[in-house]
Each structure stands twice: as C-alpha cells, then as structure tokens.
Amino acid sequence: MSNGNRQVRARQLWGNEVYTQDSDLVAVLMHCGFYNHALSAPPASAAHVRAVVQPLPPQPAYHSRARNSIRSRAWGAAVEGCSYRVEKCALVSRSGVLTDLEPSPDGAAAVVPTFTPAQYERAMNTRAAASSMERRQRTMQEVTIQYNLCNEPWLKYSMAAVADRGLKPSQWTSARLHKEVLFLETLRERYELSRVDTPAAAAPADPPPGEVFRWARCRRILTQAHMRRVGMPLPEAHLDILEPALAWEDLQWSPTGVAVKGKSYQIVRLHFSQQPRLNGATELAMLDTATPMES
User: Which of 18, 59, 99, 243 has the fewest CB atoms below 10 angstroms from its CB?
Assistant: First the structure.
C-alpha cells in the first residue's frame, strides 16, 4: 500500500468504477480515492486493509479516467472472466479498531492550508536536463500561463494563486475581491466569483455585515475587452446565478479546484479582473469585513 507499488506505477488498472478482473486492487483503491496516492507507506498504526468487492459481468468497454492522481487505462472490448467494483474499504489498526474509509469520487483533494507568504514557482528537472551529468543540475520554471477558452493568457490554477498573501486583512483574498472579480475556468465552463454589495441602510450601531459572495456561471465566454465594456462583476443577464449569497467559509479551496457548498469544480485556470475604482473611504470600510482563508 504505497506509491512505490509496481502495479500502481505501471497503472495496471482498466476502467472506471467498474474494473477488469486483472486490475490491481491497490491501484483501484487509490484510483477510487480510498487511499491517498501520495503516501509512501501506510500509517504505522495500520495492520491491514480490508476491501469488499462485487463481481460483475464483463463490460462492453472499459473507459479511462484520471482520478486522484492516477489515470486508469481504457479497453475497448469485453474481457474474459468478470469485472469487479469496490463496494467498501476499511482500515484495521494494530489494536483491532476498524475504520471505514470513504472514497473520493470527484478526485478533489482534502482542504489544505491556504496561506502562502512567499510567491515561489516550483523548479523541476526536465527530461533533457537529465540526459547528462553536466546538464542534470539545470532547472526550468514550471509553466504558469495557460490560454483560456477565448484564447487569452490566464494564470494556471494553483493554491498560491488564490491563497492569502499575508496576515494583514488587506492581504487576504476576500479583501482582494473588494476591488477585483475572480474568474475561474474548467475545461469547458467559466465561472465568476464576486463580492455582493451589502445594503448600506443598517444603523450605525449595528455590527458590520459579514462578507457575502456570489458564485455564477458565465453564459457566454467573453474576451477581457468585452467584459470591461459590459462591466464587472458581470450583469445578471450574462450569468446563471448558482449561489447568490455565500459566506467565505462556504468556499473550500484545494490543489485541484474549489468546492462550493460541497459541490466540486475542477479548476484549470483563473484571472483576477479589476473593478471600477472605489474611493478611499469605501475601501477602508470594506477591509473591516474581510475574512481570512481557513487553514
């Protein structure tokens, strides 16, 4: 049960949800999300893992899918024997305690600390750099720019791009959304995350209202110039409002995307766009209600 398993490294699994009979069970458990692929060894307190599988008849075809850092293989015809599906999985500790393991069907990683005080890009060795001892020490920066759905350069999605920049309220991402709108894209859709202006009719003695955000899907993929002409945040005529009133805690960021009230979105790129300028007094008042990201 480790990422060094030969069958896991060779991706010896075919299918998704339903797998061929010769698919390696450890690789299948990691693909389903019962066990973290990043672990080099199981916990020291673990004695063994129990998996309950259901035999199924051969499928007409087995489709490939990337889940939890593993891509299964595809097979375009039925196979001899049977198929199987993992019904449940449990971890048995050395003391005999049985703990049920839950799958991660969407491939969304668990929420991780979101504070990134310094902005650094990872350095990685390329295949060419490893071709000789002389060039092995050369590194190149990871590509962080991608072209969006209308062929404009955006940032590649990463935790560093959406994390709080410091401990001061003015450096929190929620405070940044007072002056900017965050656009995020999956492989086929574009979404807008913006701050909702709270009514200013509250009495002065009342406490400042909490942060309220809006999550919406863009009906059309507009260029940056077109969005500036329309106005940002985009008018409701250009959006399908999915969540009109979110607290900042309703957004859970992970290395693979964001979960909005439990629904996961696999984000691949993002872009912060400036809103029309606000006066200084308004900006200071907004900072009083900023919320830090959860760790």
Answer: 99
Is 117 a member of any domain? no
CA distances, 2 to each of 129, 147, 164, 222, 248 (Å): 28, 36, 33, 45, 36
What is d(CA 90, CA 83) in angstroms, rounded to the nearest whole number? Answer: 21
| CA atoms lying within 13 Å on the CB side of residue 114 | 23
258 within 8 A of 177, measured Cβ to Cβ: no
SS3 of residue 98 by DSSP: strand
* C-alpha atoms less than 13 angstroms from C-alpha of 158 in its C-beta half-sphere: 15
Taking only the tens place, the pLDDT of each residue in 232-280 is: 999 999 999 999 999 998 999 988 899 999 899 999 999 999 987 655 4
Q: Are residues 127 and 234 in the same domain?
A: yes
Asked if residues 212 and 195 have their Cβ atoms less than 8 Å apart, the reply is yes
Report which DSSP code applies to 33: T
Number of domains comprising the chain: 2
- Residue 199: exposure state from Cβ atoms within 10 A (0-12, 13-18, ≥19): exposed
Beta strand spans in the chain (E): 15-16, 18-20, 46-56, 66-67, 70-71, 83-93, 98-101, 123-124, 140-141, 145-147, 153-156, 180-185, 190-195, 213-218, 239-246, 251-254, 257-260, 263-266, 269-274
Task: Answer yes or no: is 107 within a domain.
Answer: no
pTM: 0.53
pLDDT at 129 over 70: no
- pLDDT digits 0-9 by tens, 80-123: 889 999 999 988 888 888 888 888 765 444 444 444 444 444 55
CATH code, domain carrying 19? 2.170.130
d(CA 213, CA 81): 53
Both 89 and 133 in a single domain?
no
